[in-house]
Amino acid sequence: MCPPKLKWCGVGLAxxxxxxxxxxxxxxxxxxxxxxxxxxxxxxxxxxxxQVNLISQVSEIQITEADIQRGYLDVPSASxxxxxxxxxxxxxxxxxxxLWPFKEVRIQGLASPLQLNSGQAVVFxxxxxxxxxxxxxxxxxxxxxxxxxxxxxxxxxxxHPG
Length: 162
Prior knowledge:
Layout: H1 9-35, E1 50-57, E2 60-63, H2 65-70, E3 72-85, E4 91-97, E5 102-108, E6 114-116, E7 120-125, E8 131-142, E9 149-152, E10 155-161
Antiparallel strand pairs: 1-3, 2-9, 3-8, 4-7, 4-10, 5-6, 5-8
């Protein structure tokens, strides 16, 4: 309580109380700011990718009478390509197309030889660090009624992460 002669005592007491509350409020804010912690967890997932660079590809095949007599046609180094992938589990190579005028295609230059008896075949290739260069050679087994002449390249190649 203020003595009766001091008119401003009540105002001073109120100001002091307000300052004290404000100081306690700020002290509490600083204390909480120091105590507050946060956790941040970051995860990432690298998606598998595959990059294929077709360096060269034969566009047509010439079948001669000598090829027909022999029963097959060899086309060495017909497909040259580079493959780069980050997949640790390897990748799949798919070959597809029309076999006519052939009844079978044998492909060399892969991790294991591949034989194509229908319009499609898939082969697993193991993952290798860095770029892999492939030089694919083909043996086309000719059908019985194959005629000599020029034929469009019968196969397409696609590559997919394993």
